[in-house]
Amino acid sequence: MPDTNPLPPPSQRVWVIGLDGVPWTLLQPWIDQGHLPTLARLQAGGASGGLRSTIQFLTAVAWTSFLTGLNPGKHGIFDFVRRIPGTYKQELTNASLRSGRSLWRILSDAGRRVGVVNVPMTFPPEPVNGFLISGLDTPGLDSAYTYPPELKAEVNDVHFIAVSTVGKSHAQYLKETLEGVDKRFELLWRTIDREPLDFYMWVEMETDAIQHCSWHLMADPSQPNHDAILQVYKRIDGHLARLVGALPEDVTLIVMSDHGAGPIAKTVYLDRWLARQGWLHYKQGKELSVGDRARRVARKAVKNSFYLAQRYLPVGVKGFLKRFTGAHAAVETFMEQAEIDWSRTKAYAVGNLGNINLNIQGRDPEGVIPPDQVDDFIAELTQALYALRDPDTGEPMVAQVMRREEIYTGPMLDRAPDLLIRWVDDKYLAVKDYDMNPDGPIFGTKQKFGRHGAAYALDQTGTHIIEGVVIFYGHGVRPGVRLEGAQLIDLAPTILHLLDTPIPREMDGKPLLDAFEPAIAEKPVRYEDEDGDLTSGSGIELTEEEARAIRERLQGLGYVA
């Protein structure tokens, strides 16, 4: 609830427009070519630059780092899933599992009025001094996704969570994506002036989604919809013209992305590579129990049946099968884990961009690596990763192998992967081996959306890169400034500084003062008197149905296995 002794009203307001996954590598050329006049106006009249994301630069990690100003070792979100200590299991993450306070919680406690719309990793919605509409991780429109609860009746007709990729041609997906952009802005106009607010935030997800399945089209103008990504950007730019044209004088506008985007050069089956090195083993022959054999047959049957069904059956039936696929996911994950021979496995892959967990004696249920040999094994594994070469170019594929302790700090460190890989130019995508086939190819050229491979029509040809964008415009901003060294975790303390609210000492970011006129830049930065609470979030557990719906959506978007 709001502080009983709130701070005096701020002299300005802050609006944040989040454009998920937008990179300067696309934005700047299209600004220069005149395709995006509104964003060109913001850049010319404001302060702008690159915005370094988190490691890994995934949606769940990045947005959580933005909204807390904390590194993942403090907030505890390392992917859309995270390990359960003492087991080999992974759990879906959500806002209730986050540690640390959100930006809007801090503002609310200081008596500021806030409105938050469609930010990922905000379900279940937390009580705020204002309103909140949760984003990508919302199970469905029938769930309690708003605070206050009665707000749902006002927005349910225009809010949506994501455009599904299932069973669609690219043309149909593009059409629905453009319509989705229009709906997102309809929700913006319905909420931005709903009540007087000190802080308002709204996120557009379709930028990221269209890049994932359209990157390859840009290289060939003869391709239908080769300008699909540009079409989405232009649609957004047109809507932003109305917002910027009506921008109140006391509003500082921030346009930002949580990470950037780029092409996928290769997919890498890390589990197969680990198996080829002798560090991961599957049960074979006599090691397979009757149950193991049954699970293997069942998994192959499911994969084949869904491939045929999604390719040939009517749309209505595909929709039913999609729902069945999601319900099936937890069972299939169990099947995969049951087939790994943990007694001989030293390392296994987790997550999307290239993370590896070790199997350590005394920590893991069937640990193999003695604690005093962990450093030597990491050195051996790291050397082997640096030796990976692109089979077509012969160039190194791995830029950096990092131990979790090297990049994270905080009480949630034990939930992080043991090793994190940074690929050269962020252009390789680690994917899971659904067939459990150590003899299969290590490298691929295409990744299909969703768990069941070709059951989903669209190829994933775009991936995330570490640098996103930030533009400050409006009240108190120095025009024409080029920002250097800005990080995603800097935005929360910057917003607090703009709104005359003390910054929590546990935040890892710092205010980006170079973007502002002296009245703001030279104002003393104030911090809270005491360290804040980094204990875990509300602990509200998702129902089985909610977890199924979220996992299904994230699989369809290529975010989880």
Protein model, in words:
The structure is a single chain. The protein has 561 residues and is α/β, with parallel strands linked by helices. The protein has a domain at 13-264 and 464-556: Alkaline Phosphatase, subunit A, CATH 3.40.720.10. It is built from 17 helices and 22 strands. The strands form six sheets. Strands 7-6-5-8-1-9-21-2-22 form a nine-stranded mixed sheet, with helices on both faces. β12 (347-350) and β13 (355-358) form a beta hairpin. α7 (170-191) packs parallel to α9 (228-245) and α8 runs antiparallel to α9 (228-245). It is globular. The two termini are 38 Å apart. Mean pLDDT is 87; it is low at 302-335 and 451-456.
Largest sheet data: 9 strands, mixed
Rg (CA only): 23 Å
In order across it, which strands form the biggest sheet?
7-6-5-8-1-9-21-2-22
The assigned structural class equals alpha/beta
- Ranges where pLDDT stays below 50 over 5 or more residues in a row are 302-335, 451-456
**Structural shape:** globular
CATH superfamily of the domain at 13-264 and 464-556: Alkaline Phosphatase, subunit A
